[in-house]
Amino acid sequence: MTTVEVDAAVAAAARESLRRAGLGPTVVTGDGYGGHLPGAPYDRVIATCGMREIPYAWVEQTAPGGIVVAPWGTRYGNGDAVARLVVEDGVASGRFTRLVRRAAVRHGDYVSQEGADGADASTTTVTEAEFHTGRYTQYGPRRLWDEVEAAFRWWTGRGKPGVERFGLTVDAGGQYVWLDDPAASWGI
Fold first, then answer.
1. Fold of domain 2-8+23-103+161-187
2. Which residues contact 127 (CB under 8 A, 6 or more apart)?
3. Considering the chain, what is the average pLDDT of its residues?
């Protein structure tokens, strides 16, 4: 068993705690993004930090039939889901199992006063019953609310799928999210 921890103090504390418990895994101080080739292949790779990209090194270092488990999310929000991927023939693929609980996002943490003051008021065809409110402000070169509304309509048009209907595939070319069928994926 191998564990990789980027923080030297945390790694040292882990070594000591594991030793006291009578356990002797290899504790590596370093960036886990590259995995740890000297211990490969692994039957399981488990990440405990939120990922925006599953490193292909993890796929390469996981034995055929092995499993990669990691909290994964897009760069567009903090709502991660746990991905459980099975590795076969240089490809890791599987469904999301559940959402990861996160702290609520506060609007003021992400929008400057300049942005709020210069925003355009707009309306939406999404009703309050569908999406809690019907009036939004937009500021900047992209009409982001229009994109959110289009995504909402896409989601409702597919029966409001839960996280368990989505999946992720990682191969040497990148990572791809899919709904229901890995063959119907799109790049992230």
1. Rossmann fold (3.40.50)
2. 134
3. 88
